[in-house]
Write a structure and sequence with these properties.
Elements (H helix, E strand, L loop, with lengths): L5 E6 L2 H10 L10 E7 L13 E4 L5 H10 L4 E4 L8 H10 L4 E4 L17 E4 L2 H9 L5 E3 L3 H4 L13 E6 L4 H5 L10 H17 L4 E6 L6 H8 L9 E5 L6 H5 L3 E4 L3 H8 L3 E5 L10 H4 L4 E3 L2 H13 L1 H17 L7 H9 L2 H10 L1
Parallel strand pairs: 1-2, 1-4, 2-3, 4-5, 5-6, 6-7, 8-9, 8-11, 9-10, 11-12, 12-13
Length: 366
């Protein structure tokens, strides 16, 4: 009888779940090994197509409960995402370490790397590209796997948006104000409401001049929509532009496809919009820390930090189709910059880290 390695895949946040769902498509990974999923309830739907047994946690348990759960149902290796919210991945890394089980945490974005590992670390880290591998080494990781980001590289350009009378702007909100208030993140020098006010100021100016503008706000899954609307006050009640609020966990791709311009801060949704071929602009007024908008970091898109210049540039993009086309052309370089990792990165990691009898089982399954 062939020994099958039991792999446990775990996720707590939507970004991590999106990444891991893509990594599970690595040829031979789930077919050659016994796999299960341990996930929190908010991300279970990301794995509907995986066809794997699922253990759903309504809320992250205590460390003691997690260890008992793990010991009652152990695995040979652990693959997780990361989060800087309420511990879940951390508890699994600790349980894995206590039971001498190798673990790897795959990172779904380029920012906040050190903050993703506040207390305990996995044995290995999975990074998106060589530049992030360098950053991981700088914060002390020795075993590094370049996994890439299959869910991003699989994104295809969306069809051109049909020309219409109104310019459509999608504002992608993030959870910044609450994160800073709770000590989960460092101050940016602004928050999501400051960015939104500038987008709306530009939309109101352009609409008042005769160019209709439709603005859609997509809240972050962890945003308090009512608190956001209270904070922005009059900016959320425009006189000229049309404003629509989108709450809940509605998929972002259809909203991006329907937009001419996607504005936000540094969300992965802005990266997705870049890869879908939409005009993308990061609005970070008074930024006091590193710019975490990767297309902007790499020179493929605008990061607007001066409020007056931000309104001027936003107005230009809303008014001028040629300016939008130029911005789209520039973003084409970002897609080209995303490199694919080596073939089967997770199975290569497993062959390196598992005990010899299990390594032979993996080799026979590959």
């Amino acid at each position: 009888m062939t020994l099958r390695t039991k792999l446990r895949i775990a996720a707590r946040d939507p970004g991590a779940a999106n990444l891991l769902a893509g990594l599970l498509r690595e040829p031979g990974l789930t077919e050659g090994h016994e796999c299960d999923l341990w996930v929190t309830a908010n991300v279970a739907a990301y794995f509907d197509q995986a066809g794997l047994p699922v253990r759903i946690f309504e809320h992250p348990p205590t460390a003691a409960v997690m260890l008992r759960e793990w010991q009652a149902d152990p695995a040979d290796a652990l693959i997780t995402g990361t989060s800087h919210y309420e511990p879940f991945d951390d508890l699994l890394w600790q349980a894995a370490r206590t039971t001498a089980t190798p673990s790897v945490a795959a990172v779904d974005y380029w920012s906040n790397l050190a903050r993703r590992f506040p207390t305990v670390r996995p044995d290995s880290i999975g990074v998106i590209d060589p530049a992030q591998a360098t950053e991981a080494r700088a914060i002390g990781f020795e075993d590094i796997v370049i996994t890439g980001h299959p869910s991003l590289t699989a994104i295809n350009p969306a069809p051109p948006r049909p020309a219409g009378k109104a310019v459509s702007v999608l504002f992608v909100s993030e959870r910044i104000a609450a994160d800073v208030a709770e000590g989960v993140n460092d101050s940016y020098g602004f928050d999501e409401t400051d960015s939104f006010r500038l987008v709306m100021a530009a939309a109101e100016s352009v609409a008042a001049s005769g160019q209709p503008v439709d603005v859609t706000v997509k809240f972050h899954p962890y945003n308090d929509a009512d608190a956001f609307r209270d904070a922005v006050g009059a900016a959320g009640q425009p006189h000229n532009a049309r404003l629509v609020w989108v709450e809940g966990r509605q998929p972002i791709a259809p909203l991006i496809e329907a937009a001419d311009i996607v504005a936000g801060i540094s969300s992965v949704a802005l990266v997705e919009a870049s890869l879908m071929g939409r005009v993308v602009v990061s609005v970070q007024p008074g930024l006091t820390r590193e710019n975490m908008f990767v297309p902007g970091q790499r020179g493929f898109a605008d990061t607007l930090t001066d409020p007056k210049q931000a309104i001027t540039r936003l107005c230009e993009l809303m008014r001028d189709p040629a300016a939008r086309q130029s911005a789209q052309d520039r973003l084409g370089g970002f897609r080209a910059s995303l490199s694919s990792p080596a073939e089967a990165p997770l199975q290569s990691w497993l062959k390196r880290v598992l005990p010899t009898p299990l390594k032979s089982a993996i080799a026979s399954a590959s």
